[in-house]
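Protocol step 4 of 5: obtain the predicted structure for the target chain.
Materials: sequence only (see below). No template structures provided, no constraints applied. The aim of this step is simply to have a reference model before the mutagenesis design in step 5. Sequence pasted as it appears in the construct record:
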Amino acid sequence: MIKRENVIISKTKTILEKQKKYLQESGEDFNIFSITKIERYENNTHSAMITELLNPKGSHHQGAMFLDEFIKIIFSIVYQSKDENCDLEKKASDFIKAKPIVFQEKSIGTINLDKGTGGRIDILIQSNETNIIIENKIDASDQLLQLERYNNYKPNKSIIFYLNLWGNEASNHSAGKLLAHKDYYPISYQEHIVEWLENCIEKCSNAYLKINIRQYLNLVKKITNQLKDEFMDELEMMLINNLLEAEQVANTFPVVKRKIREDFRKKFEIALYKRIPKELEFRIDSGNTYIGLPNYKSEQLCFAIMFNQGEHVYYGIYNHTANIENIKLVQEFLKGKVNTTNHFPIWYYLKELNGEKIDFNDVAFLSKLMSADNHEKLLNKAVNELSEFIQKYYQVLSIV
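Step 4 output (structure tokens):
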């Protein structure tokens, strides 16, 4: 007798095939964002698109209509959690009447961690009394005290939203002393941006504009793994009729993803070990790989390859204690502009064969990795890249 878990998987494949066929026949599979490989660019794609739609003076020529729809959604998150009797329509209307100005990448001064000020706000909606601040996260890691610094942006009152794919809370690294759902509000592409874009399409009477917004909506649904409504309904009903089995599959899936990541990491380490100076030592901590000189101490520098859950794989020179002097020494040695953080004086993303960032949380990537040929090619590419990086910067380890 076939297990019901297998039936769920088989039926899910059938639904996904229906979705794929629909997208091909309807033409919705043709998405300019995906074709040009900019679908996960936070600033140049997502912040730019959202800001333009929110801007009452934007090229859409729809005035504050899209901004009004957005304000209603986010105000319901802020005010209904505090006061169920709040008149959201009036609050949204009053905010729009104040003729707010919308900015993308708004500089609020040089970062000063001691004072908790400065930075660059992804999206700022500014009125005379209230700043609506949106920190937009698709792939990038949280910056140190980022939300806390934005909260100190004066003179107006600030309402901060932490926008990401799934509505996760910000890390303590970014939020500092701020509390989720009190000092800032997590919102998601999966729910809130999808709802907003659907409302925009419904309200808009311009056919050409509708097509462009729908292109972006389809992109958001793609990166949040959502099906079209009719296929989602079919999938939901099938799962409802097989709840125990669906739960078993759901609970096992994170384990499977973790196993794929760990298997790749271990093969990668074995192959890399044969390609680097023999005196370097490996150590593993929380699934990440650290490569340093013998008797490594935390105040020293080492190489690191970060396989953190939910993040893209990246590597670089690791500055464990975030020592500023270490950063200065490395930058003096490099004599050039590089990606820099306090913990990584130089770092890069590890990328797939097609140039996309490696993300072991991305099921499409994991599916490609199941091909033995793709697996071998990616493993060789990663080992070559890291061994060249280590050989190039090996001297850096001895400057501290």
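Step 4 remarks: The chain has a mean pLDDT of 88. The first helix runs from residue 4 to 26.
Proceed to step 5.
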